[in-house]
Amino acid sequence: NMKACLTFEFHAVLPELPCRVGELIGGSQREERADVLTRRMADSGLNPDDYWWYLDLRRYGSVPHAGFGLGFERLVQFSTGVENIRDVIPFPRYPSHCKF
Questions:
Q1: Is residue 53 within 8 Å of 37, Cβ to Cβ?
Q2: CB neighbours of 39 closer than 8 A, spacing ≥ 6?
């Protein structure tokens, strides 16, 4: 059963390639059935009362949904053969970068 876990995920990983890019694409399908979520939370040792807001999202208006994301920087890294992902990020973040 694909929905046995809280989230079904897939990943396109390229570990064998010399550039060692890693995950290019990741995706998931959320579990929308509140009763299944409650049972899985209890089975995992989580208190469902702590997640009332998440369960309410599923009870009042959620529909089955899924999605995926492509890591643009990783795609550029893979395409160009650049070894370090920091060299392909168009807007790098590092300490003291923002001047506030």
A1: no
A2: none
Stated as kind and residue range, the H or E segment containing 80 is helix 72-80
Instruction: State how far the Cα of 32 lies from the Cα of 66, in Å rounded to an integer.
Output: 10
Interval 35-79: pLDDT, tens: 889 999 999 999 999 999 989 988 887 788 888 888 888 888 888
- Residue whose C-alpha is closest to residue 39's, from 6, 1, 62: 6
Cβ neighbors of 35 (< 8 A, separation 6 or more) are: none
Q: What length does the chain have?
A: 100
43: enclosing H helix or E strand: helix 34-43
Q: What is the rounded CA–CA span in Å between residue 65 and residue 35?
A: 17
Beta strands in 15-93 (DSSP E): 22-30, 66-70
Identify the sign of the CA torsion 25, 22, 2, 5. Answer: negative
